[in-house]
Records
---
Amino acid sequence: LDRCSLLPIDHFFLFSKRVITPAGIISASVEIDNGKVVSILEREEAPSKEINGVPVMDYGNAVVMPGLIDAHVHLNEPGREEWEGFVTGTMAAAAGGVTSLVDMPLNNFPTTTSSELLKLKLASAAEKLMVDVGFWGGLVPENAANLTILEELLDSGALGLKSFMCPSGINDFPMTTGQHIQAALPVLAKYGRPLLVHAEKEQPGVKSSQVDKDPRLYSTHLESRPNSWEQEAIRDLLDVAKDTAPGGKAEGARVHIVHLSDADESMQMIKKAKAQGLNVSVETCTHYLAFSSDNIGDGDTRYKCAPPIRSEVNRKKLWNAVNDDFFDLLSSDHSPSPSDMKLPEEGDFMRAWGGISSLQFVLPATWTAGIPHGLTLEKLSNLWSRGPAKLANIYSSKGSLEPGKDADIVVWDPESSFVIDENYTIFHKHKLTPYAGQTLYGRVITTIVRGQHVYQEGHHATQPCGKVLLAKSTS
Ligand SMILES: NC(=O)N[C@H]1NC(=O)NC1=O
Ligand SMILES: [Zn+2]
Ligand SMILES: [Zn+2]
């Protein structure tokens, strides 16, 4: 156990004047024993150095809150570990205050589309995890046509499924139509697990390779994936998601739209579907809240992702939606590649890999972008811990600070800033990121996973003791 933690003791107290609990922000001591939160006691001042021989860590005015849960990460291992990997990805997570993440079923090779392939994932993750990691399985035409494969994948512990309504960018992860999704939803309903959907649909007339336009212009990328792609996919998706309504043949399944960028009609459709009782939820990503097309330089492919980052007007609408509690959760969609695949020299948006590298920065980046929009610490915490825990069905043990739950905690200083420059250590496998050079508020001081101090002020525990998070079989 010692090497799993920089503070190898089982039983201790944390004190802070800002502990984020489901009942609000309080000045309190949090007792942690054997990996769990045991008690949270309101008190104005730090107790002495110890209570009955149990050490007290006084964090003063720093924020003590549930560790972030990033439900949308591409770790790409096995098969593309030169893109990211379990070791580097989970070290970056720990350094960023992320205590659990859920790995996407693609970009790894082979993709995670059957029980056997999930077992490959698990074997490959063994002894590499600095934080806890769950897995989404992939829904593709092949297993949508053979529901036994899907059931086995869910029996093996996939927390839910993910599919694409447009080409995924990876040849071995083909897209699904509304019909494939409709076929899979009753299976997900039986297991009570979600389907996550990349909702973009190619429109006739708009080619993602706009051969006649200058591929170095950001506008070429933006125009190649207009918001109508999101709107048309979401229209199709919500049509089949009707089956999730009470009494429907997929009641108990949840349809979750990942990485929404369009703040216009897509948002209106989702609101309406929720109001009608469909079991639908939605996330956006830090980069849609932090960046806008108005500020992306031509040739700067670090910002290339799908759906694309849209206008400043759109970004403001996304923040209004955050403030109106439209989003159920936030995620990173950390999807890095080797730097040369971003074609930094050519700056060709049409040919560069689409995916943004961000996992280590989501806490300070969300906070920094949110300050001018009145983001509160509680809302930040709900979007980054409670929401994703509920999506992944791990809220009984994670996602909030409450007695009985896992002691997954980030201690951070929202008022302290840092610059992502050459003195700052990025733990991602590749250092190319649009956050480079930025000044961010929200320095992570300590990250605790099940009571173990896995990260503190630039240092990690020497042994990776993260666990895999598998769904318990319900069938
Ligand atoms: N395959 C993959 O990771 N695609 C992701 N990248 C991105 O920008 N959007 C995605 O869905
Ligand atoms: Zn996607
Ligand atoms: Zn993704």
---
Amino acid sequence: MDDDGLIFNFATTNIAAPKASVAAAGKGKSQRWRDRVKSRQAAKHEDAKKEQHDTQNQKNTAAAASFKEKPTPQRQHIKFDSGGAQENETQKQQQEEVERLLGEMGKGSGGKTSTTGTGAGTGTASLPSAQAGKQIISSLFTKNPEIPKLARDGGQELRVSSNAAGDASFAGLGLDPDIVGFLSSKMEISNPTAIQTNAIPVLLGNDQAAQDGETGGDDDAFNFESSMKVEHDVFIQAATGSGKTLSYLLPIVHRILRATQTATSGGPASRELGTFAVILTPTRELAQQVYETTQTLVNMTVGQGAGGKKRLHWMVPGIVIGGDSKQSEKARLRKGVTILACTPGRLLDHLENTQAFCVDNLRWLVLDEADRLLELGFEDTLRKILALFEERAGQRRRVLGHSSVATSLELPRRRINVLCSATLRDNVRRLADEALVNPKFVSATSVYDNAEQAAEAARSRKRDRLMAEDIEDGRVGKRAHAYDGEDEDGEAQDGDEGQGDFAVPSQLVQKAVIVPAKLRLVTLVALLKNTLRQQPTSKIIVFLSCKDAVDFMYFMLSHGATQADGEQAGEGEAEFADDLFNTEEDAGDKGDDAGDSKKSRSHRPSGGRGGPQLTATDIHLQSNVFPGVKMFRLHGSMQQKQRTETFLAFSREQHASVLFTTDVAARGLDLPNVTSIVQYDAPTDLASYLHRVGRTARLGRVGHAHLFLLPSEAAYLTVLSERGLRPQDESVEAILRLAAKSEGTRRAAEWQLRAAEWQLVLERFVLSNITAMRLAKQAFLSSIRAYATHGASEKRIFHVRFLHFGHLAKAFALRETPAQVAEGKGNNQKAVEVKREKRVRREREEKERKKPRFVKGNEISEFAVGDVSAYYGPRVRRGAGAGSDDDSD
Ligand SMILES: Nc1ncnc2c1ncn2[C@@H]1O[C@H](COP(=O)(O)OP(=O)(O)OP(=O)(O)O)[C@@H](O)[C@H]1O
């Protein structure tokens, strides 16, 4: 009947009119579909089906092989790389192909796409156009591609943590006793981690090399001091959650503190000396986090004797980030900010346009998540920033001597550059070569004199691991090429390759689930159920490929279960839907603050921190699908204020909660006590994998991470394994069975019925709720587009032509055919009308309120109670007016 493999197994009576049909399907018909599922399970056609699958799989493999591309030597977003243009071209071609495929769906052409082998099928491309206007209710458990048998070992057992604090002491590293005391009494931080143990002495200028009499620094005026300290620029590389932030912040605070304590002439330390340290981060949330940590640190009290302890009033942290009010930032910079956390676009803006921003005394420039800064294309901005700092440093020499603090021997004699990264990739190495002076490469295991030494040590660790694995598996020498960082043809591996393993915390339990597209949604629901039941205070992060998918999952898994069939969106939901439009555009929502670039300026409606108050439901929703659980969402297109508050609220949350997010939350964010990560959409590069899973298992704590892959993506596990990432295999069936069992399903065979029920509830919700329908369609289309952004080297695994659009639609609880979805392009006509009606009504009410009312004095009693706001003009609506902030960053 259909050639796309979809089966009409549920109520097949007319369900074209959503509300009526849903009610019908929901009441009295459940017995019927249950029977049908059962009988299907018992059907004797399994052999025939299997044969069909085998044929399909052969096609799939052939298709995959035909798309196998040699990895191009460079990655896509790194403009430092000469091969980027070629990759961008491939990217463009695929984007065009996606648009063409979506276009064909939209026209309902029904023609085959140009693909020859398409994995599980060609989705809508093969849908007969006669089906347009119908809904498809397909079985969850039939016509799925076979899940490949994975020749993997049992994966990793729980190991001793690799990023916990060790036995060394902060005092032993040379830190000020007041700082050490404050860390242990107020921050519960008693011993340094391995990376802190290695990095802090170097940044204090107290490392061994210094004692050996090495000289450093390039400032002739101060050569006479060179016997005191040796200054190195530093590259800090360590696993996620190992405490990199404090490894650079503590020496900065210590040295500024010492400079003020030892100053013997001139005025006291003051904000007027301007900015001593700039910390640049790729995302606003990370900048926020660095700012908060600095804020905590400068709350310490220092000093002793007659004067007693004093707060560090003059050491002032600050933050300047895109999306915030530039005027208030200017005011803060004018007063003076000692340690500044910022994103690159906004920093450059202030350097160029804020006269009062004083960086004459700048002594540290830290690039946190340096590799990501480069991937986001900030290298030109960084160059300009560096040039401006150089220019101002000249001015500093002229003012030296006017301030004793600024000339203190405790401070570095030149600006120290610090690069932080969890990986040692080619792009950061090149930046290190270009920007670092007299550098040290500091890892958790050692301190190296140059990048090559560090890379060789990493390669050697990888060699040892591969050999040990091969010996264990009885295949010694089979991967000898990889021992030397080459691919199978003997060519040097690109970018990430050849640089050693990706280090994830050893106590992280990684799992991979191969999930057929149709089962993705219910498997996610089941996995969340299981995790929340096993650990009732779980904090879970679900990573998705695009903001539309985030909005959809957040909305559906918050409201999904209770919405009665046919019920329209409630007022609260309608407001939420409105808010979804009230977002900040960013450059394709790659997840980070690409929106910091000029591209997005004109679209930002609002932002400033001083904007209107947000209510609790702007930050989180109570889930009806998972009772008692708070749902959060975070992506780059939300208003800045909402982003910041969501980040802070999820960070502080102590109870069961789920955060749906894009890669905006993947990097550097320290969200305490996250117990579990779900990568519902695979990451678009290996480094993202590392950073996403790194949001859990921090500082020695146990964490769990699940990666969802389609059957056609199973080869990704080999890619991971080559880099030392070996997730355990977990089956969809095991997850669904466990969730069914926890709901009281007694008979083992009924787990499929349970799963079908969950899917049905969500599909009905989407059918009956205009907002959910619109979000589902947008999410479906955007996810396909996002799929096309996988790098060229991974196209043989993640190619949009391997996707079965029809099956994928089910993962968005859609019953419409992909053609119908594409035709509507997500703009549900009814939703648009409702929105228009609401706007008209609102405008009418507003007009009504604005009408001048001539009130006689005695009309308002001085004892009147109730709402007199009408007399004082219209209330400012949420979001209104905030757009007057200068949004350009
Ligand atoms: N020595 C320590 N002992 C205990 N906790 C610490 C220590 N150092 C840092 N922490 C805490 O550990 C958490 C993680 O630190 P941080 O965010 O700096 O890690 P990171 O290495 O930068 O991670 P990522 O690579 O993910 O950005 C923070 O909450 C921090 O306060």
